[in-house]
Design a protein that fits this description.
The protein is of the alpha/beta class. The strands form five sheets. A six-stranded mixed sheet has the order 4-3-5-7-6-11, with helices on one face. Strands 12-19-18-17-16-15 form a six-stranded parallel sheet, covered by helices on one side. The chain has a three-stranded antiparallel sheet with strand order 2-1-10, with no helix packed on it. Helix 10 (394-403) runs parallel beside helix 11 and helix 14 (491-507) packs across helix 16. It has three domains: 2-153, Chitobiase/beta-hexosaminidase domain 2-like (Chitobiase, domain 2), CATH 3.30.379.10; 159-440, Alpha-Beta Barrel (TIM Barrel), CATH 3.20.20.80; 453-585, no CATH class. It has helices at 2-14, 46-63, 111-124, 173-176, 209-218, 242-255, 280-289, 293-307, 357-367, 394-403, 424-436, 442-454, 458-475, 491-507, 512-531, 533-543, 551-565, 577-585, and strands spanning 27-31, 34-35, 37-41, 69-70, 79-84, 95-100, 103-108, 128-131, 134-136, 142-145, 151-153, 159-163, 223-226, 231-237, 264-267, 314-321, 337-342, 372-377, 408-412.
Length: 594
């Protein structure tokens, strides 16, 4: 109990909550299974109504007592939990929790913020929203709150999105305070809604595969001229072509005829390939302004100027990535344009330790007057299931982005179909927590997740995470396209990870929730053993006198987990799970020594 209280107090301090006084003069909400309070939600907003229902539902799950939810209540002398969504003193997603007499008040700058406040209160009472499929709710005879306890909380980043299968779960997103809706359905209003940010490789959609086929047949001159091929190619468009700019503007205007009340972002970006236009106009412009990024900056600026008058709530966002990642020279960026900077780099160190990183980012920030969002990575693209030892590096990265007042972050972790990527649930939960407040200590959060999500298996999970950090720090190099686990890990370390997760499964076999979590965590070290079985793992096992199952038996276990959780994808440009298993059973190898 002492350890639990220490963890709670440490967490409150880490996320900037104010806690003072003692719990002596507590406000009782439930006692001995009987309700001592009611919930008042007078707002007409669907999210506030839902917040009241959620508050009542979780309190009933914790205590067995169901608190009534009412629209109005003028009684005195009775404890009330009041939900308010019109506090002009709070920013849009900011919330506060405090008491006034016998009233516990959860206020927000928006209905979404009120819902965040309700989940904050539930976590304060001991609930854990570890993932969409792993949630813990304590069983309590008494539920009370210190009347001197106060909370005021708002996000460090205005836009937050975690690109993982778990991060796109609509019902879980408000619990994690993920507000982005790119690549997924928008969060409905009753769950708080979401913010639109289209920042992929698109020119407002006119260059998608189907559309570009038709356009290329009708207007080949709209597309990139490749001097080496002496022809126009469909892979890119000529972004300085006047008709292309007009087509983009027309597409955006047709999409936003009913202008949204909140800001929407529309992508004007090059596609993900190097076939940029080499026509005389583009070549001269790129040479004058220092590279390919100038071609998309100029296009975005022209579109932005066209729509500024009639679509004031639509912002243009362009992707500064790969061939367009370097800032241009001699250009400024329109005030209704946002830069999304995506930089592949060494993720074993903080961004500021990568040569040239901060210099380029600061230049983009200056050009865009601070209107910059980051497309970041915590990924292993060639092997989603392989151990990816950079979980904790999200903390240093997000702190540095916050210090530079970056407006929003997308953290890409895996592709679709890779639901059980390495430590998928921890990485998604941790990223969401740090995006809200990067000042928190990532290892305190990691340990909190291990304790709550893994129960009796927590010690084994923490030990495996410690091994991974040691291996990563020893190498000090890890990129998103390093598929070879032996680049970082010693074979014995991979074996230890597998054995620790097996031990954790044994420790949790009497608890279905945490046992299932340990089974999901097993897949990553298991995959590494299979891939590296004949590349040092089996000999390391013999040397350590460890009775490791043969590779076929490990494949049986691998197939069972993948089948249970419908895992289809191994990695970008890699075989499917079915093809991988077939290759391994035939004695082949996926990874090769360099």
């Amino acid at each position: 109990m002492v350890d639990k209280m220490k963890r709670v107090l440490t967490l409150l301090s880490a996320i900037g909550l104010i806690s003072c006084g003692t719990f002596a003069a507590e406000l009782v909400i439930v006692s001995s299974g009987r309700s001592k309070a009611k919930i008042v939600a007078s707002s007409q907003a669907p999210a506030v109504k839902f917040a009241g229902e959620e508050l009542s539902r979780y309190i009933e799950k914790m205590t067995g007592a169901k608190l009534p939810v009412v629209k109005t209540d003028n009684s005195t002398g009775e404890t009330k939990i009041v939900l308010e969504d019109a506090d002009a003193n709070l920013a849009f997603e900011e919330f506060s929790i405090g008491t006034e007499g016998r009233t516990i008040r959860i206020s927000g700058g928006s209905p979404r913020a009120v819902l965040y406040g309700v989940y904050e209160l539930m976590e304060h009472f001991g609930c854990g929203f570890w993932s969409p499929v792993n949630e813990s709710v304590p069983s309590l005879k008494k539920l009370s709150i210190d009347p001197k306890w106060k909370v005021v909380s708002k996000p460090a980043f205005a836009w937050r999105q975690v690109h993982s299968q778990y991060g796109y779960n609509i019902k879980w997103k408000p619990k994690a305070r993920i507000n982005g809706s790119m690549w997924t359905s928008p969060t409905p209003k009753e769950l708080g809604g979401s913010d639109s940010m289209a920042m992929g490789q698109a020119l407002a959609g006119i260059n998608n595969n189907e559309g570009s086929k038709k356009l290329f047949a009708e207007h080949p001159e709209w597309f990139a001229w490749r001097e080496d091929e002496k022809r126009h190619v469909r892979q890119q468009m000529c972004t300085l072509n006047d008709d292309v700019v007009k087509a983009i503007v027309s597409k955006i205007r047709s999409r936003y005829r009913s202008n949204p009340s909140r800001i929407s972002y529309q992508s004007v970006s090059m596609r993900d390939n190097g076939k940029i236009c080499q026509c005389k106009k583009c070549s001269r412009f790129a040479k004058k302004h220092g590279g390919a990024s100038s071609l998309i900056v100029e296009c975005a600026n022209r579109v932005a100027r066209e729509i500024a008058g009639d679509l004031p709530n639509v912002r243009i966002v362009f992707l500064a990535y790969w061939i367009t990642s370097a800032p241009p020279k001699g250009l400024t960026i329109e005030p209704n344009v946002t830069v999304c900077w995506a930089k592949l780099r060494n993720f074993a160190v903080p961004p500021s330790k990568v040569e040239g990183h901060d210099k380029a980012l600061d230049r983009w920030r200056k050009l865009a007057d601070g209107n910059v969002v980051i497309w970041d990575y915590n990924a292993q693209f060639r092997g989603f299931l392989l151990p990816t030892p950079i979980v904790d590096m999200m903390g240093p990265s997000l702190r540095e982005y916050s210090e530079k007042e970056i407006k929003g972050v997308l953290m890409q972790m895996a592709g679709f179909g890779a639901i059980l990527m390495d430590f998928a649930e921890l990485r998604t939960w941790l990223c969401a927590k740090l995006m809200w407040n990067p000042a928190q200590d990532e290892w305190e959060l990691i340990n909190r997740w291990c304790d709550g999500a893994c129960g009796e298996g927590a010690d084994e999970v923490k030990e495996w995470l410690k091994i991974r950090k040691t291996a990563r720090d020893r190498k000090r190099s890890y990129g998103p396209y390093d598929p070879d686990s032996l680049h970082v890990f010693k074979p014995k370390e991979l074996i230890d990870g597998y054995l620790l997760m097996k031990k954790g499964m044994k420790e949790t076999e009497n608890d279905p929730r945490t046992h299932a979590q340990m089974r999901r965590l097993l897949l990553s070290p298991l995959t590494a053993l299979i891939c590296n079985y004949n590349r040092g793992v089996s000999s390391a096992a013999r040397a350590a006198k460890i009775d490791l199952p043969p590779r076929d038996k490990l494949l049986d276990e691998f197939e069972a987990i993948c089948s249970q959780y419908k895992v289809k994808s191994f990695g970008e440009g890699m075989p499917s799970i079915a093809e991988f298993v077939k290759l391994m059973r035939e004695g082949g190898e996926l990874l090769k020594r360099k």
